[in-house]
Amino acid sequence: MLIGSIGFPNDQRVKLEKIFKLSKQTRYTLVTPDFSELPDLLLVFGFDLTLYPELAEIPQSYHARIILVGRGKPKNEEHAHLGYPLVSSRVLRALDKMTRENEEMDLESAKQEQQEDTFSKYTAPEPKDSAAVESGRINYQVLVVDDNDVMQQALNAELQQLPLPVNVHFAGSGEEALANVTDHSYDFIFLDVVMPGMDGFEACTEMRKRPDLKKTPIIMLTSKTSPMDEVKGIMSGCSTYLTKPIVHEEFQKVIGRVSNWVDEFQKA
Q1: Contact residues for 191 (Cβ-Cβ < 8 A; gap 6+)
Q2: From the CB of residue 146, how many other CB atoms can be counted at a distance below 10 Å?
Q3: pLDDT tens track for 220-233
Q4: pLDDT tens for each residue of 198-212
Q5: Could you give the CA distance from residue 261 to residue 215 in angstroms, rounded to a whole number?
Q6: Residue 81: which of 95, 68, 90 has the closest Cα?
Q7: Rounded distance between C-alpha atoms, residue 216 and residue 159, angstroms
Q8: Cα–Cα distance for residue pair 153/26, rounded to 1 Å
Q9: Distance between CA 69 and CA 98 in Å, rounded?
Q10: Could you tell me the pTM of the whole model?
């Protein structure tokens, strides 16, 4: 992680470099800030930003990544601050806190963007039967990717409750799934997160590289979702999540939305 600094006396900048190098925390690297490509965090010496005209050009959204360094507390509490003189433990705690807060903000932003760009197309579904009939569809082609035979059959049983016949293909690994999508066309794909070899995130990323799979709904299957799992899924391009074991009501709600969207998409 790149940490920029501005306005520091040379001896204090040297001290910052030593703090980063001698600590067990190796994620931080001190850099001279390039204002055309801002660092992850920016340390500013003193509480008066007007002393540094270059800061006037940075976007307002970046101000959450600025840490003011000085004695006492700044009058304006808009920015985080770090006490002076510099103490190793205090510096690292402040950076850890800022890093964590900004990572959480990035996660929320990514989730919001994903919900706007992807999840919204599965909302407000039409009744199942009408969408399927109007689309002229005769069946659904589905790929289920999971290394557990019991889970494969559970998903198959749920899928057979759709109003039209469902032709289900199975794969037990990410590598096998990629071979399947090369040889067949699918309306939607279920993809387990944890598998031997290539995991679900990697497989999803590779699938999204294919032009014919850019808009195919990919539903990730996971025993639990953490914020990090969600952001990995977003980055890899998944459409939504289903937790395991499968809950009938939740599954039918999601698959109803997805199948209706597939029908509408093919009519468009």
Answers
A1: 145, 177, 200, 203, 204, 218, 219, 220, 221, 238
A2: 25
A3: 998 866 666 777 77
A4: 999 999 999 999 999
A5: 11
A6: 68
A7: 17
A8: 46
A9: 14
A10: 0.53
